[in-house]
Amino acid sequence: MKFPCLGSGAWSSPTRRDFLYGLGASVGSVAFTSMMAGELAAKTTNPLVPRDGHFPARAKRCIFLMMEGGPSHIDTFDPKPKLKDLHLKKFTREGEMKSRMESGERYFVQSPFAFSRFGQSGADMAKNWEHLQNVADEICFYRGCQVDSVNHPTAQYQMNTGNRFGGDPAMGAWVTYGLGSVNQNLPGFMVLPETSFPQGGAANWGNGFLPAQYQGTTLRPKGSPILDLQPPKGITPEHQRLNLDLLGKLNAQHKQRHPQHGELAARMESYELAFRMQMEVPGVLDLGNESEAIKEAYGIGQKTTDAFGRKCLLARRLIEQDVRFVQLYHATWDSHDFIKRAHGNLVPQIDKPIAALIADLKERGLLDETLIVWCGEFGRSPDNGIRAGSVAYGRDHNPKAMTIWFAGGGVNAGHTIGATDETGAEASENVHHVRDVHVTLLKLLGLDDNKLTYFHGGRYKQLSQFGGEVIKELIG
């Protein structure tokens, strides 16, 4: 007897879990299970076919700017004048430091950066954001987010997948699972990492328990963005087509004997996608046909901004080709000491490229339908463990306060939502767990977190883990 293998769309002999799950089935639930299996089978025929969301979307696509390491909100977008009065005074909040990794005395540290307000909205920014201040009115700043972990890998996983312990699908995987991919010649979820992957590795953009077709496709930061994109010399498209047809026939026979192996179907589809990518990818990745003015605006050709400028311009070109979700990684913002030097070097690397990306999308009429998200995995503390008298001031990890900002895609531009306390140690207004940020992101893309589920491990799973609420103030 064959049963539908829930969550894969394949029909196979039941596992013990499947058997027990079906014991209590009524006639109605049997009909429902059959219908669901049919829908899943249709999805696996072409799992990336474009699909409508659960309700009208404010954004059609997302560019996610991940600042690995945890940028300091106190030194970027959330000024704390109180720290000037407390500078190098002992940190005395009772019990706050007992769970910290470092031991010994701790001292408050003021920001080494001057702040001002920019745009008609009066957005707070450190003055070393010399270019982003020009698009301040396009940005919605959110200061109320909190996460659970002080460790980089687990915090990265939680920000990217909703689960601190890894193994779950990334946001981009959930989005492409829910909406499919408009451009069938390119992956729906693409990632532009640093030369070294972030802590936690490729699981930050993995498909988790979703079918393998939904995992992120990485572009290498140096050399050829995709290895072996072009066929060997003398191999024509006709030769490749014949080889793929033969391989597809053999794989189809094997798949018929082993329908429970979803990875085989994903591999077959990846071969076909790779074949189609040979025609489209080289043109998309070639920045040579961009004007000199555009390349200058993104900082391409300039030592400080070239690397991230290329990523931002490539992200614009990818979303122009209807790639659904593009994630960019930058550096490490883990500034435990010398924060003036560390953040002082990091901000100029991304300031001009990101400002150019926002302005470029707006000029092309794409900003309203493209959601941009900027964040790290957590914020930083108002204190550090460097003894008084040292100049190596830095900040510790802080899961209780951080700044995330959004632009485009239906967000409440020109507003600052939420607040932290007078030292920036903890979110104090409009406080939400990161799961609510995820739910809001999905909402803007037309997806309902409670409906975007996948049956795995005996239960329906979702990005928020167990549900969340939309942060209404973030939506324009």
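That was protein one. Protein two is written in the same sequence-then-structure order:
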Amino acid sequence: MTINMGPQHPATHGVLRLILELDGEIIVKATPHIGYLHRGVEKLSETMTYNQALTLTDRLDYTNALSNNLSYCLAVEKLLDIEIPKRAQYLRVLFAEFQRIAAHLLWIGTHALDIGAMTVFFYAFRDREVILEILELATGARLTPSFIRVGGLAKDIPDTFVEPSRKFVADFPGMVDEYETLLTENIIWKKRTQNVALLSREDALNYGVTGPVLRASGVYYDVRKAHPYSGYDEFDFEVPLGKNSDVYDRYLVRLIEMRQSNRIIEQVLDKLPEGPVRAKSLSVMAPDKEDVQNDIAALIRHFKIMAEGFKPPRGDVYAAVESPKGELGFYIVSDGSNKPFRMRIRPPCFINLGALQKMIEGQMIADAVAAIGSIDIVLGEIDR
């Protein structure tokens, strides 16, 4: 029998359609169909200036807007060959790790809810709300801030930012302990996740998956370690690996990642240097007020940049970050104008979804729900 799962099924986390060929309750073949949420982000970006296109990146994986900003900015900055101030780099790391925890909290809440554990959802959203409030103090927005800009940040953090951040860092390990109490040794949770949706190390590499799904299959690859950016090599943190390559291991890997992200945030707060948060090259960034008060030429350049955008030299670049879902990369081709000639996004959700068929063939229908949750997909990034 052939049945549809989705595209409006609550456990597909967006408009994903699966065509399942069944033998009784067993999945013989699974074919993912996408395209119901096509946004055209790549082509839209090619009609906008580099600064304007930044706002589209927030809306890819909308649980991870700040890291999306960061990946895009790293690519454009590579084209421009500009140096980012150390304080801005450290704050970028802080925002990215706060965003990673928030994204993982959304994942654990919805994943547990899909499988039938409702209490975890309330705990996770209680804690995620604290992060969103902290981020709102700095960025003024909760979901799509566009706060990380080409050349640095939109502005510095306010004086009210550090204290609630330190409180969260102190409290968060206890919050993760609560999730573990609810799930890690829960016999129902273990029966629904252990030895379910297996993806071997070899298959994970062949399908090109990245992020927690890859690391749960025992492969040590994290962009923050393999290709450090924004000063990640100056912070001490561990990359957790799984052993059994199943849904349960993907859960454990993300739990440990949240603890490690909290550890990185604490180090940023302890080591945060003073200084500017934007590149001082006036040909690239809009200058601060004090830079232009007595310099009419700089003021004219400022408004020209704001109106027309900057023009990187001809060339092509690729830059990537370790998003909560895996390697998120931007490939940009510049023709010397103020708009990208071509922009191609390497979205981890899209590529990780390709391994779903391998995970669930031979499994029960109910296991498809657990498998989709363990990949942690967001259709905004898949149908970009």
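Strands lie at 2-5, 17-23, 26-33, 148-149, 152-153, 315-323, 326-334, 342-346. Keep this in mind for the problem set.
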